[in-house]
C-alpha cells in the first residue's frame, strides 16, 4: 500500500509520521511556527485533529494535511492543554470543527489566555525586547547545542509575533471532565483526563484498539519536561495511570513518536529533579549550582532545566512553610 503521507505536498512546520492505518503524527520541525506536535486521526466518517500548533500558518498546513490524508474536513479538534503551542491554531478549524478540551483548560484559556493575548496585542514591545536580548546571548554562547536550541526558540517566537496581529483566540466549544468518547464509523477514540500534572489540567487521546496515546506534554521524547505550571506528584500519578491502560505507542507533545520507555524516562526526570532539589535544600546548597544530570544532557529544551529546578524548589519551600511545627 502506498504510504498516505506521500500524498501530502509537505510543510516547513512539521514532518508527517504514519503511525497506524489512519493515524498520523505531525512532528514539529524546530525553529518553525509549530513548536509542539499534533496528530491527525481518521475516524472513518469524520476526522479528528489533536492540538493545533503555535501559528496560523502551521495550523493551515495541518488542516491541509488532514484533508489530503483523510479526504474529509476536520470535524473535531482536541486541545490537550492550554499552552499556546497546542492551541493558537484553533481559529483555522473553527467554526466547522468542534473544539474540545477539559473544563479547566477552557476556563484558563477564557481568562488567563485571553488576557495575555490582549496584553501582547496592546504592547508587543516586551516580547520584541526579549527576543533581541536573546539574540545577543546567542552571539555569546559557546555551547553549540545550547546555541542551536536558543536559535530555534527565538525563531519560533518570531514566527508567533509575525502572526500575532491576525491571531483570534478561539476557545473550545465542548468541554468534559473525566472521560469522553467519540465513536466514528471506523474507530473509537477516548478523551481522558486524570487531572493536572504538566499544567493545571491535562487531557490525552487514547485509541484502545491500536493502544496508541496522544499525550500532549505529559510525555516528551528526549526533551526536558516543562514544569512551570506542574504538580510533580500528580504528574507521576498520571503517568502511572496512562501506562496502566496498556499503551504501546505514544505521540508525545514534543519529540519523535515513542513508547512506554520514554514515559518511564519522563517519570525518572521528574523524580531526579525533585531529589536534586531536595538534597540541595537539606545541605543548604544554592540551586543555582545544580547542573543537568548526565542522563539528560543530550535532551532538548535545555533552557527549561533551571526554571524546572526553581519550580520544584518553590514547591518544596511552600510545602515546608505550610507544614505545622
UniProtKB/TrEMBL annotation:
Full protein name: Cyclase
Organism the protein comes from: Paenibacillus sabinae T27
CDD domains per record: metallo-hydrolase-like_MBL-fold (cd16282)
Superkingdom: Bacteria
Functional summary from the UniProt entry: Counteracts the endogenous Pycsar antiviral defense system. Phosphodiesterase that enables metal-dependent hydrolysis of host cyclic nucleotide Pycsar defense signals such as cCMP and cUMP.
Catalytic activity: 3',5'-cyclic CMP + H2O = CMP + H(+); 3',5'-cyclic UMP + H2O = UMP + H(+)
Domain (Metallo-beta-lactamase) ranges: 35-254
Amino acid at each position: 500500500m502506498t504510504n498516505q503521507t506521500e500524498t501530502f505536498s509537505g510543510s516547513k512546520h512539521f514532518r508527517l509520521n504514519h503511525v497506524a492505518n489512519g493515524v498520523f503524527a505531525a512532528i514539529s520541525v524546530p525553529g518553525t511556527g509549530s513548536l509542539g506536535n499534533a496528530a491527525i486521526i481518521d475516524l472513518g466518517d469524520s476526522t479528528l485533529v489533536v492540538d493545533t500548533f503555535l501559528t496560523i500558518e502551521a495550523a493551515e498546513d495541518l488542516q491541509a494535511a488532514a484533508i489530503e490524508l483523510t479526504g474529509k474536513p476536520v470535524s473535531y479538534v482536541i486541545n490537550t492543554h492550554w499552552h499556546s503551542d497546542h492551541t493558537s491554531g484553533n481559529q483555522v478549524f473553527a467554526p466547522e470543527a468542534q473544539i474540545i478540551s477539559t473544563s479547566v483548560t477552557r476556563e484558563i484559556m477564557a481568562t488567563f489566555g485571553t488576557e495575555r493575548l490582549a496584553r501582547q496585542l496592546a504592547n508587543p514591545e516586551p516580547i520584541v525586547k526579549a527576543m533581541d536580548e536573546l539574540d545577543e546571548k546567542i552571539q555569546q554562547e559557546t555551547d553549540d547545542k545550547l546555541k542551536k536550541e536558543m536559535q530555534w526558540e527565538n525563531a519560533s517566537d518570531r514566527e508567533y509575533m509575525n502572526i500575532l496581529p491576525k491571531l483570534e483566540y478561539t476557545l473550545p466549544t465542548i468541554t468534559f471532565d473525566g472521560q469522553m468518547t467519540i465513536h466514528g464509523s471506523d474507530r473509537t477514540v477516548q478523551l481522558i483526563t486524570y487531572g493536572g500534572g504538566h499544567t493545571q489540567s491535562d487531557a490525552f487521546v487514547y485509541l484502545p484498539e491500536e493502544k496508541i496515546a496522544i499525550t500532549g506534554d505529559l510525555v516528551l521524547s528526549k526533551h526536558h519536561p516543562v514544569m512551570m505550571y506542574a504538580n510533580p506528584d500528580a504528574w507521576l500519578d498520571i503517568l502511572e495511570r496512562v501506562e496502566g491502560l496498556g499503551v504501546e505507542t505514544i505521540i508525545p507533545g514534543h519529540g519523535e513518536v515513542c513508547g512506554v520507555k520514554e514515559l518511564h524516562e519522563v517519570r525518572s526526570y521528574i523524580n531526579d529533579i525533585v531529589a536534586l532539589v531536595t538534597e540541595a535544600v537539606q545541605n543548604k546548597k544554592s540551586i543555582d549550582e545544580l547542573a543537568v544530570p548526565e542522563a539528560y544532557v543530550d535532551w532538548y529544551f535545555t533552557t527549561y532545566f533551571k526554571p524546572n529546578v526553581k519550580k520544584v524548589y518553590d514547591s518544596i519551600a511552600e510545602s515546608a512553610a505550610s507544614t505545622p511545627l
